[in-house]
Amino acid sequence: MENDLSKFLNTPTKYEIQLLKMGHCDVMGPEVYWMSHWTDWVQLYFWMVVISGNGKTAIINTGPPEDLSALNERWSSGFGERGKLVRAENERPLNALASLGIKPEDVDYVLITPIQVYATANIQLFKNAQVCISKRGWIEDFHAEKFPMHVPREFRLSEETLRYLTFEGHDRLRLLQDTDEIIPGLRCFWAGVHHRSSMCYVVNTEKARVGISDCLFKYGNLEDGHPLGIQESLEEYYWALRRIKNETDVFVPLYEPDVLKRFPGGKIA
Q1: Which of 7, 51, 256, 266 is the most exposed place for a label (fewest CB within 10 A)?
Q2: Is beta strand 130-134 parallel, antiparallel or unpaired with respect to 186-190?
Q3: What are the beta bridge partners of residue 250?
Q4: Is there a domain that residue 269 lies in?
Q5: CATH number of the domain to which 11 belongs
Q6: Buried/exposed 170-197: b ≥16 CB within 10 Å, e otherwise
Q7: Which domain holds residue 115?
Q8: Does residue 170 lie in a domain region?
């Protein structure tokens, strides 16, 4: 592990990172902060992350489905109208990417965390991309669940996406080990906490190692040591927290609106 990390730190490959908003919703506080913030509403942004450099383009997550009605029916059952995902036209994945001059065929790697439809719904649009998913998550979050899942299968992978990954895109599916290098300067480790398929992707930039994951929703989960509310393992939270602090210099929680306060315009270089 130490040698692998040293190799990663010394790689000459550096990337730029741009965040693209895919929509937002509100949830009640205990979903974000374990056993706390009972009467607070917390806003979540859903980020697609574009990683570019060395002639390669990767994205983390592909955005929610084209039709939000089923997802919003489910989410509003818990939080009412405020729980519905709201998305502007420029936040649709292909429109957002087009604002950067990126076409779907330009994407070389699609990195998923977690296997949930708001992250996986558009995998099949990126037909030239290698699709990278946690091997542990592929098994335990979808194909051979270790325990009953609180999210139905169709809200993890749609039928269309599953068909693509099983047939047409099968050769492009790459199942990641718990610690893996995707390409030089871009690696990952299994994080857990939120879902069995939750990964932390670590990107070398000119000035910092940038970690990106859904295992923590907000900066409060990282900097205040306040465990995530909607989690599957408190032990994994503390394990992932230590690793993030040790192996990254900057961390991007994948649902944190305040990323824009620290990185105006969502650009991380």
Answers
A1: 7
A2: unpaired
A3: 210
A4: no
A5: 3.60.15.10
A6: eebbeebeeebbbbebbbbbbbbbbbbb
A7: 2-264
A8: yes
- For 128, 142, 156, 232, 248, the CA distances from 26, given in Å and listed in that order, are 34, 26, 20, 21, 28
Q: d(Cα 15, Cα 206) in Å, to the nearest integer? A: 7
pLDDT digits 0-9 by tens, 115-155: 999 999 999 999 999 999 999 999 999 999 988 998 999 99
Structure tokens at 150: 């609180």
62 vs 124: CA distance, rounded Å: 9
Whether 140 contacts 178, CB under 8 Å: no
Query: What is the spatial distance between Cα 260 and Cα 269, in angstroms, rounded to a whole number?
Result: 14
| Residue whose C-alpha is closest to residue 48's, from 107, 4, 128 | 107
> pLDDT, tens digit, for every residue of 64-108?
999 999 999 999 999 999 999 999 999 999 999 999 999 999 999
Residue 135 CA to residue 175 CA, distance in Å, equals: 5
CA–CA separation, 2 vs 230, rounded Å? Answer: 32
